[in-house]
Structure formats: C-alpha cells, structure tokens
Hints:
By secondary structure, the protein is α/β, with parallel strands linked by helices. The protein has three domains: 3-33 and 421-522, CATH 2.40.50.460; 37-291, inorganic pyrophosphatase (n-terminal core), CATH 3.90.1640; 314-417, Diaminopimelate Epimerase, Chain A, domain 1, CATH 3.10.310. It has 18 helices and 19 strands.
Amino acid sequence: MNKWKVINPLLDQNKLVEEVYRSRGVDNYLELFNLDEKTFNDPYLFRDMTKTVDRIMTAIKNKERILIYGDYDVDGITSTFILYKTIRNLNGNVSYDIPNRFIDGYGLSVSKAYDIINEGYNLVITVDNGIKSVKEAKILKDNNVELIITDHHEMEDELPDAFSIIHTGLSDYPFKPLAGVGVAFKLVQALIGDDSSEYIDIVALGTVADMMPLIEENRAIVNLGLKKMKHSDNIGLAALVSFLDIGRPSVADIQFKLAPRINACGRMKSAKLAVMLLDSIDKFEATNIIKEIEENNNERKKLTKILYEEGVSLIEEEKPSIIIYSPQMHEGVLGIVASRLANEFFKVSVVLKEDEYTYKGSIRSYGGVDVIHILSKLNDLLIRHGGHTNAAGLEFKKENLEEFKRRFNELIPTASHEKVTKVEGVINIYNLDIKQVVDLDRYDLKDCLFVFENIKLNNKYLIAGQHSKIIINKDCEAIFFNNKDLYSKISNESNITLLGRLDINSFRGKSKIQIIIEDYEIN
Ligand SMILES: [Mn+2]
C-alpha cells in the first residue's frame, strides 16, 4: 500500500468543485468554463501564416494536387479531417494520407516521400507531424513538391527545408500548448474565418485526447466543442456519441469513451477508418463504420490485457524505471501498456517491441520526469526518438540494449519514484450531497481522488467472482474492480477507510453515489 498525501485537509465538501480548483491555483473556476471565442488568438500571429494561406489558395485556384499528411492517433486523425474537409469545401483538389503504424511507422518517411512524388502531388501539408522530417523535406524539394509543415511536437535544432512551417515554437503566438489539431485549426481559421467553428467539436476531441493542458485557448476550444458535440453537425461523430449513449459529452467521455475507440483504428488496422467515420455522408455509412471500430476496440482491449500481464511478469523491481521488451509486444498498444505500468507501479515505463535488428518502443513518464530531455541525452544510442515531456517514442539497435538500460536508469531523478498518492481531501460520505458529485463530472474533476473515513458496511457482494462491492446505505455504494480481497476481509464490525473516485451509478431511474475504490485500509 502506498502513502496517501492529502492536499487540502480542510476541504469543505459542500463546495467540492470550488475547493479543488482553488487548491490548484484557480480562484474562479467558472471563469475558466465560460471561456469562449473571445479567448482565440489571431492565427496570423503564427510565423509563415500569410504565405501559407496564399500558397494554399493558389493551389486551390490552379487545381494543383494537394495532400494532407497526418498521424494515426486521435490528434492526427482530427487534424487530417478538418484541414482536408476545409480545402475540399473550397473546391481544392485534395486527398489525405495517414501512414500505417505497422508498415510505414510514424510521420513522413523516405519511402512515403517517394510515393508522394510518384503519385504526382504538387503540395503536401503535414498535420501533427513533420517538424523532424529534414531528410524527407529535401527529397520532396529536389523533386519539386512543395511542403507546408504544421506541427506541435518538440523541435530540433535543424528544421526541415519546407515552403513554410506553422509551429507555436517558431513564433510569438502567445499560447504554446496547442494540440496538433489546435495548430491545424489555426490554419483553418486563417483560411475560412468564423466558418471554422463548424469543426470545433472535432478540435476539442483531438485536444483532449492528446492530453493537452485545458487552460486558456485549449479550454475555450473544449468549452465550445463539448457544447457543439451534443448536437454535432458531423454525422459520424453524432452517430458515435449516440451509439455510446452519451447524453451531455464531457472531457471524461472523450478520454474514456470516444478517444480510445478512434485510436483503436490506428492501433489495430488503419487510422483512415476513423477519418472515414468523420467524413460519413449518412447514418447508414456511419453505423457500419462504427461496427468495425467496435471490433477494433474490443481486439485492442483483449490484446492490451494479455500484454500488460506479460509486461508485469518482466519487471525488474529494484530498478528506478521499468524497461521491458519482448518480441510478442504489439506496436499498436505499446503506449497503452507503458502508461498502465507507469500508473500502477509509479515509475517511468519503457515498453519495447523486439524486432529483427532493433527495439522500438514507447515511454510514459511518472512523477513529472521529462522523458524527452532524457532521450536527448541518449541521442548517440538512438536511431530515432520524438514526442513530448511525458510521452515519447524511440528506436535503437539491438546491441545497444544493455547500455540503454544502464544509462536510462542513471538519468531518472531519485525523487520521481517515491510512491505517494495525492488525494484532494477527506470526505464524509454520509453527508455528501449527490449534486456535488454531478458537479465534479460537469467541471472535469471526475478523476480526483478522495479519502472516505469511517465507512460502515451495510452489505457486501462479490460481483462476477472478481469485483468487491460494498453497500454503504440506500444512497451510496462502493466498488473495487478486480479485487476480491476487500470482500473477504471486511465484516459488519469493520471500520473501513477507502481511497477512491466519486461517480454516479444510475439504475432503473434511481441515481446513487458510487465510490470507485483504488485502495483501502481496515481499522
Ligand atoms: Mn499530437
């Protein structure tokens, strides 16, 4: 069991949302949730925006062949779709392509660059990738294909020789943490002005899925996007929202329901399936695509479970980070397995797939460790790497494994693997108003952990032979998924302390508070 650290011991549970935001330094949370278009910055603050818009407009007018080149995650998929649809609506001769994770790998590649040349494109616009494609940019240029890069990934010293680059890091643009789709959206805004609001729900989807901080311009995008998503003009998104029975879309719905399904396409088969969903022309088409997406998602879940269990068995416990490798790893779920390990074991986690000559993998940070910074110090060992401070990808030659492990572990700061679970505050569940729990979800705090003291048992069940359920009273229950121990250890005499999240369980029209247990103590 880990140490619990209560952030606000004096938490007033009658003002739950207000108090949690205050301890995060936000004095007026309602202000945050009221941000709207007025927060949007002028897209022309980006370096190169004017010449980019002019170039695209010329290409549209001259019927040049334009290719939008995206990435296979939700951010890349949504970026691809909004720019493709915008240029198509302007009567451009435009197509899109997203590399296949298993065949082509991430981003532009040399072979993809030659494909683009051979297919006769005049102009390529990358979205959510491209900032590292120095080699590919040269190949395109040498073959008279013009390249516009839009990206938000970390820049290197050497930039690709492109016609133009739209990147927050290259300009005075005042809000830096845009998602890839946020950057693409700024280009769409520059191209079509206020009509771009048609896509705001799609932009919100990519922004949340890419785990960007939901402040300032991102928060405005998400506020407007969630509102629109309820009655989306996008037939595919509307069909998915209704298929998942989402009434009033929230950030948590994007994180746990929409994004995993859209991601599953690129993880299992092809991300183009998800672009096709967003581009569906009627409900019939959308429904058929959703069926296929569900199959991909179920397959993804099954595989993740198997590989996570394999991963756990390979952990070397005494090391400051988790580094596991196996030929059985599946490239589509490396990142999910790594983040699960990081969260379960409180350590930076590296999950590698062993190929013939290389290890290829995903890293997820824990405890605020900057993994991109660590990788930059291992540059001499790596064939390639890229990503963000808390999530990155890498590849290196097989013979470098031992040196990689040794030096990677040396670079992990010692404070990062302390096992402390941060808890917002202590709650008396017997006095908690269900309205406070509804508000937690409404204001994106469903993930918060709380401690619940002096819980008395009214009844207990073992659900499906594997989940412990506690009935606290007629308005409140608690469940510990995949844990049988709690059920067998507690009795009517127990005084129980729970650590968990607050949720609402609605059944036959009656709503109850439900604690999703993460940890417990029996006193
Ligand atoms: Mn991205």
